[in-house]
Amino acid sequence: MCLGVPGRITAIDDAASLSAWVEVAGIRRKVSVACIVDAAHPIEACVGEWVLVHVGFAMSRIDEAEAEATLRVLAEIGELAVEREAMLTTEATA
Amino acid sequence: MTSPMKPLIAPAATSRRSLSATKVTLAHGGGGRAMRDLIDDVFVAAFANPDMGDMDDQARLDLARFTAIGDRLAFTTDGFVVDPVEFPGGDVGKLAVYGTVNDLAVGGARPLHLSCAVIIEEGADVALLRRLAASMRAAADECGVTIVTGDTKVVGRGQADKVFITTAGVGAIPAGRMLGTRRVCAGDAILVNGPIGDHGATIMAARGDMALEADIRSDCRALTPLIEALLAASPDTRFIRDATRGGIASTLSELAGEAGLGIRLEEKAIPVREQVRGICEILGLDPLYLANEGTFIAAVPAEAAAAAVAALRALPGGEGAAVIGRATAERPGGVVLDTVFGGSRIVDMLFGEQLPRIC
Amino acid sequence: MKHADEYRDHDLAKGLAHAVAGQLAALGATEARPIRLMEVCGGHTHAIFRYGLADLLPKSLEFLHGPGCPVCVLPRGRVDDCIAIARHPDVIFATFGDAMRVPGSTRSLLQAKADGADVRMVYSPLDALALARRNPDRRVVFFGLGFETTMPSTALTVLQAEAEGIGNFSILCNHITIIPTLRAILDDPLMELDGFIGPGHVTMIIGTEPYGFIASEYRKPLVVAGFEPLDLLHAIHMILQQKLDGRCEIENQYQRVVPNTGNPVARKAVERVYEPRATSEWRGLGDIALSGVQFRPAYRRFDAEAIFALRGERVADPVECRCGDVLKGLAKPWQCPAFGGACSPEMPLGALMVSSEGACAAYYQYSGLQNSALDAARNKVPA
User: What is the SS3 assignment for B260?
Assistant: First the structure.
């Protein structure tokens, strides 16, 4: 359910109706940014941002720092598992 | 309502008629002068070639032309409907020529002649018909085939969608060429001539109802040069089929079923353009099921795979050729995909069209 | 594709799968006594099958495929309502493609279209509103289905229609909410599960707070997850770590997209247009109190239910279907007597065969490499 795809806002289409152009892997579509703008974050600030698009609406801004942090954690978990395995194997052999 | 193109195309009988209308009306299908104007000025003018012959209901073709090529006649027919009728990279006319030429070529035949029957919706633009006829002629010239006989009908508004085209084609198969699912063996390499799904994704974007803008083009093309190159590089090629409706998933399922073998695919080896992937991600579709119009699946002996791919890559439309999997003795009749992620799943034939998966 | 391809990486997957296998062993899970996790969301079900996730994991982990596919849980009577509206000659009925094949009591929207109804597939409710703008002499009705993720889109479209004074646009509201249904599942005495993989995109709107009771009252961990296969593996790892640590918490794996507070702007739009509905029917699960929304009185003029005086007739689920049991993890799809026979993707009988996000369709379409019972069920001759 709730298919969402990451895309980048490339331009404002119509500021009054909170419509912007988003690009997903080179595919362009107009989306509403009504859910991600407020007084602190006007539509102009959205250009260049990565967002999660669902049924023609940008529903969330993607936090690049969090994305990097998640990928780092993923790599660490894998490395740890491999190390632990190696350690156990060494112990077993010893 | 019969309106054979033949009687009207005699080069010497009468001077060619011309059409002044801008929209097709039912009168253009009524068997009278209006119909003759349409056929003469739009279709015969565009297709004109010596093979059209005399004032008869049929084209008469020299058998020697066929026997000079091979020992078997190949004969096929296909109907073409597409919405929109003109799209980036092609139009229904081009599809109608390439599609039938490709159906001959994938059987190893050299295509020679086509027929063309056109069903036109009342109200269709004459300018559109002229563009389609010119496009068909250009495609036929490119493929070295002639359109030698045809027919037109006009139906009421709403009874067809602008233009439907049916083409039939004949060609000859050089002696010794044997292609078919039954020749495929376990261990054979499965290859594709280029990125998949371009046509389906292009049409989906061009239709406009999903309001997606893309710079993609249909892969709509004649496969004859690619297939000739493939057969030269890998004379023992077992099987070739163009993966049109239902995408490569359906073609591979057919192959597995008919050959009684399994097919094992490597997802990361399957070429898909970035924008086609984009459309699939947005709409929740699988590119394996998107239609193609210039993409084929071939099975070749494993040892010939590298040469086959190299030969294809040297030609336009073959730049993205790749080995995407192999035939196996396991799971006969089934197609299994090893995913980019390291898992595997079955690739089944769909019942109907893929629907967007959005909410 | 940025923010997607990174989370499909095979090498990272191997390491993570390795770690998960270690956790399962440490927890003493076995094939006979597996750890059972429910992925609530149909998008997760789809990803599990699409990427063959189970192949990377030991059999001591079992997935229960939850009710989070709005198309799958659409009751038959509701599809009949759609068709009744779509049959009005002046109506353009716009819907997400997903709903087209869902069977009603006698047919689907796809079949109604073949019978002459003007049914159009759209990507966004905004596209349906554009249809209304372009066709002032027609009534355009959008089928508003989906969970909390999709509600803001229809609410904002209604607000847009109001602002523009568009009078020929309405929505048939079938929005449902996941929280009451999770509670209903947890209250089922037959239900045995060890934790939830939480729905990422729903949480992007509602935030993590509404799940609190799952940890505090029912003592189950829930980890909100993204939709890429590595997100799922990561969430599984986080749930199992809670188990190992003896914790029951609501955690968020999908931080890059989901703030813990959700999206207050989107929620405000939803609250302005919709109010809780006393009860909503879910295919396979029956009526669940306060599990859906309806238009507030101030927006009734956009409410297709009010405009078209629907009969709202209820149609019981087909008796042979065991969708409810499959949804609760009490039966595997191939153990249902209808699976592969009376119920297949070509002629879906039960909810879970309708969409590729439904467990039955996913098993039918994608799975069965090492499962002869499933293979046999799939290939049986239709009754």
Answer: coil
Residues A26 and A71 in one domain: no
Q: Letter for the amino acid at B233?
A: A
Task: Report the number of distinct structural domains present in chain A.
Answer: 2
Is A28 in the same domain as A67?
A: no
Report the pLDDT value the prediction gives residue B67, as an integer from 0 to 100. Answer: 97
Span(s) in chain C for CATH 3.40.50.11740? 76-177+262-307
DSSP secondary structure code for residue C28 in this structure: T
Q: Which partners does chain A have (≥3 C-beta pairs < 8 Å)? A: B, C
Domains, in order of start, for chain B = 6-173 (3.30.1330.10), 181-346 (3.90.650.10)
pLDDT in tens, C38-92: 999 999 999 999 999 999 999 999 999 988 989 889 999 999 999 999 999 999 9
Average pLDDT of the segment spanning C239-266: 98
Please calculate the CA angle B124-B125-B129 and round it to the nearest 5 degrees.
95
* Cβ within 8 Å, pair A85-C43: no
Where does residue C354 fall: left (phi above 0), alpha (psi -120 to 50 degrees), or beta otherwise? alpha
Residue in chain B closest to A26 (alpha carbons) equals B275
- Range of the structural domain that residue A33 is part of: 5-62
pLDDT at C368: 64
Same domain, A33 and A12: yes
| Model pLDDT, residue B3 | 42
Q: What does the pLDDT read at residue B1?
A: 37
Q: From the list C4, C55, C101, which residue is nearest B355 (CB)?
A: C101
- Phi first, then psi: give them for residue B99, nearest 5 degrees: -60, -45
Q: How many CB atoms lie within 10 A of CB B228?
A: 16
How close, in Å, is residue B323 to chain A by CA atoms?
25
Say yes or no: A17 and A55 in one domain: yes
* Residues A56 and A11 placed together within one structural domain of the fold: yes
- In this predicted complex, what is the ipTM? 0.93
CA distances from C46 to B29, B327, C39, C102, C201 (A): 51, 27, 10, 17, 14
Please tell me the predicted confidence (pLDDT) of residue C380: 65
Instruction: Tell if the CB–CB gap between C43 and A3 is shorter than 8 Å.
Output: yes
Q: What is the mean pLDDT of residues A7-30?
A: 97
Q: Which of B209, B277, B348 minimises the CB distance to C122?
A: B209
Interface test with B, best of A27, A28, A51, A55 (most B CBs within 10 A): A27
Chain segment C231-248, per-residue pLDDT in tens: 999 999 999 999 999 999
Residues A74 and A45 in one domain: no
Stretch 24-53 of chain A: residues touching chain C, C-beta under 8 Å: 24-25, 29, 31-32, 34-38, 50, 52
Q: Which of chain C's residues have a Cβ under 8 Å away from the Cβ of B356?
A: 96-98, 121, 123
Q: In this complex, do C121 and B352 lie within 8 Å of one another by their Cβ atoms?
A: no
Indicate whether A48 and A70 sit together in one domain: no
- C52 and B345 within 8 Å at the Cβ level: the answer is yes
CATH superfamily membership of C76-177+262-307:
HypD, alpha/beta domain 2 (3.40.50.11740)
**Is the CB of residue A74 less than 8 Å away from at least one CB of chain B?**
no
Q: What is the pLDDT of residues B13-50, one digit of tens each?
A: 456 778 888 999 999 998 899 999 999 999 999 999 99
- Same domain for A30 and A67, yes or no, is no
CATH number of the domain residue A45 falls in: 2.30.30.140
Tell me the two tokens of residue B77.
């027919």
Helices B126-143 and B92-105, packing angle to 10 deg? 30
C-alpha distances out from residue B96 to B79, B92, B250, C374, Å: 7, 6, 21, 42
Interface contact C123-B210, CB threshold 8 A:
yes
Residue of A nearest to B272 (CA): A25
Q: How large a percentage of chain B has pLDDT more than 90?
A: 86
* Contact by Cβ (8 Å): C240, C24: yes
**How far away is chain A from the Cα of B287, in angstroms, using its nearest Cα?**
14
